[in-house]
Amino acid sequence: MLYAVIPAGGSGTRLWPLSRAGHPKFLHPLTGTSASLLQATVERLAPLTS
């Protein structure tokens, strides 16, 4: 069984004022789709994990 670990944390201060502690960078849809950065990463990793 293979597990993926996605390090996502911090408030994304370089993206301020869009990103703050309450809505960090990885929760914003910055990929050109409606998916957040975290969702896009999960979707890319899904075929590789069990």
Characteristics:
single chain, 50 residues, mainly alpha, 1 helix, 0% strand, elongated
Overview of the molecule:
This protein has 50 residues and is mainly α. It is built from one helix and no strands. The chain has one helix at residues 37-45. The relative contact order is 0.24. The model has no long low-confidence stretch (mean pLDDT 83).
- Give the uncertain stretches in residue-range form: none
Radius of gyration (CA) equals 12 Å
- Overall shape: it is elongated
Mean pLDDT over all positions = 83
H/E element string? H
Into how many domains do the coordinates divide? Answer: 1
The structural class is mainly alpha
How many H/I helical runs?
1
Give the beta-strand count: 0
- Taken as a percent bin, the fraction of beta residues is under 5%
- Distance, first to last CA: 6 Å
Determine the fraction of residues in helical runs and give it as a percent range: 10-25%
Sheet with most strands: none
Topology readout:
Layout: H1 37-45
In short:
This protein has 50 residues and is mainly α.
